[in-house]
Design goal:
With 394 residues, the protein is α/β, with parallel strands linked by helices. It has helices at residues 14-25, 50-57, 62-66, 90-97, 106-114, 163-168, 234-242, 249-255, 286-289, 298-311, 316-341, 346-362, 366-369, 390-393, and strands at residues 6-10, 29-33, 45-48, 74-78, 84-89, 102-105, 122-123, 129-132, 140-144, 147-151, 153-156, 176-187, 196-200, 204-210, 216-223, 262-268, 277-278, 281-283. Helix content is 34%, strand content 24%.
Length: 394
């Protein structure tokens, strides 16, 4: 497969845009096809760990995104009443994994990626269909309602309900409901001061984190039947579930409007795919390995995928070999964490909270240890569009 041919990217989210930028920097001609009318993402905040920031170093964006880190001082895990179960700090995380944890709005990352592409590379309102995956002897083909493209490489970044995945692997069962729903909100809360935290309750969790621009990113999750919705509005639902939890949660809820709150049921690929490629097509991100958000690694793994794919763009079997074992392991770990932090059993909650408190006092913060083997990942080649960070030179 030529390394500098035409690559068609289906999906203009974080994984697709990262792949497009990485391939463009290697000399590929890029066409990004996004079904939505704009690249403005449907979502709120995203957490980027040191693993994905190192991947962004490869395309010259790592330091720019690191500059948006807002977590300073202490943070950690709490109970609904406010008791700290585990405490850590931004400095401890950076020392352990060689870089900071950065929380930012998804739109900020999408805009930064899109700015690296040439004019005209991104086409919105362009719902794409894979009509032929191609093979070593013929190009792949992708069509929209008014055009058709031949491609030396197709990057399928079309999300958890990926039509491309269904076409490549029609026997795969697809995504399964994870058992819980999530809410997200990004909003200004003037005068609010708090330590970054996640709080675990009975079948419910809440997180509150500062952003660099002064806004607050908050998320919540609760065990609920698939498809359930609030009888009134989602802000009212959050007040019922979390209104009596510790500060600053009530202040965040008071500042939110019903229209600020996003709600989505969580699905994941419980059964791994047999491969992340077929013919000239490679799957990235949720299309390949959708996972619960309990490790905050969905977007991070999509960014890793994109950089590794650009490295192995001439050999998609090598891309599968590099990514499938890792992402399968991360997905399984996220599922295990979901079972732990979303448990509804009072007995299991008591055992869990006691164990976390004891282990946290015995050594490095439990929350940081949980990222060993994930946040310390490095790209398969040194950055070629950015100066290597001090941590990577050690």
């Amino acid at each position: 497969m030529a390394q500098s041919g035409h690559a068609v990217v289906i999906g203009g989210g974080i994984g697709g845009l990262t792949a497009a930028v990485a391939l463009h920097q290697q000399g590929w001609r890029i066409t990004v096809l996004e079904r939505a009318r704009s690249l403005e993402p449907v979502g709120a905040g995203i957490s980027l760990a040191p693993n994905s920031l190192r991947a962004l170093d490869v395309i010259g964006l790592g330091d720019k995104i690191r500059g948006l880190a807002a977590w300073q001082g202490d943070g950690g895990l709490r109970t609904p009443g406010g008791r700290w179960l585990s405490r850590s700090s931004a400095e401890a995380a950076a020392r352990r994994f060689g870089g900071p944890l950065v929380l930012l709005h998804r739109a900020t990352l999408v805009d930064s990626l899109a700015a690296q592409l040439p004019p005209g590379a991104v086409r919105t309102a362009a719902a794409a269909t894979l009509t032929d995956p191609g093979d070593a002897g013929r190009p792949a083909r992708v069509s929209t309602s008014d055009d058709e493209w031949e491609a030396d490489l197709v990057v399928a970044a079309d999300g958890i309900r990926s039509a491309v995945r269904g076409a490549l692997f029609p026997g795969h069962p697809g995504p399964a409901y994870s058992g819980f729903t999530t809410w997200r909100v990004v909003l200004p809360v003037p005068g609010l001061r708090f330590a970054s935290h996640e709080t675990w309750g009975r079948g419910r969790i809440w997180g509150t984190h500062p952003l660099k621009d002064g806004r607050v990113y908050a998320y919540a999750a609760a065990m609920t039947p698939a498809g359930h919705r609030a009888p009134d509005d989602e802000k009212a639902e959050l007040l019922r579930l979390f209104g009596d939890w510790h500060a600053p949660i009530p202040a965040v809820l008071a500042a939110a409007r019903p229209e600020d709150v996003l709600r989505h049921d969580v699905h994941h690929l419980a059964e791994p795919l047999p491969a992340y490629h077929r013919g000239r097509v490679a799957l990235v991100g949720d299309a390949a390995h959708a996972m619960p958000p309990t490790l905050g690694q969905g977007g991070n793994q999509a960014i890793e995928d994109a950089i590794v794919l650009a490295h192995h763009c001439h050999d998609l079997a090598a891309y599968t070999a590099a990514r499938l074992p890792r992402t399968t392991a991360v997905t399984r770990r996220a599922v295990r964490v979901a079972r732990l932090n979303m448990t509804s059993s009072r007995a299991l909650m008591a055992v869990r909270d006691t164990a976390i408190a004891v282990l946290s006092k015995a050594g490095p913060a439990l929350l940081l240890r949980g990222f060993d083997g994930i946040a310390d990942w490095r790209p398969p080649q040194p950055p070629y569009a950015a100066v290597r960070t001090g941590a990577d030179q050690q």
